[in-house]
Write a structure and sequence with these properties.
single chain, about 100 residues, alpha+beta, five-stranded antiparallel sheet, 3 helices
């Protein structure tokens, strides 16, 4: 699957918002992607409606309040409210400090 280049990804971030509450989104750091992919491998990662996420994440976007994440699939953000992943305290610990 294709990932967006860093330039494309940064341009995209200026255009998209959370579909649930319109908060800005930022790129998820690699450490968080790796943590969530461990859960995918264990068949333990679910979206907000409880559906199993069975494909590893390549890139993702995190809501400004650091509560929810949206995956990118083939370079396209899946910005459907039901596809969001709720982040726990361990996940949020992997996010950079807010500026």
């Amino acid at each position: 699957m294709s990932q967006l280049s860093e330039v494309e990804f940064q341009a995209l971030l200026k255009l998209v918002v959370c579909p649930d509450d319109r908060q800005p989104l930022t790129a998820a750091p690699l450490a968080l992607i790796e943590r969530l992919n461990e859960l995918v491998a264990q068949r333990a990662l679910r979206n907000v409606v409880g559906s199993l996420i069975d494909e590893p994440l390549e890139q993702a976007l995190v809501r400004q309040d650091r509560q929810r994440l949206y995956a990118n699939r083939a370079g396209i953000p899946v910005l459907l409210p039901q596809e969001g992943v709720l982040l726990d305290d361990g996940d949020r610990a992997l996010l950079p400090e807010r500026g």
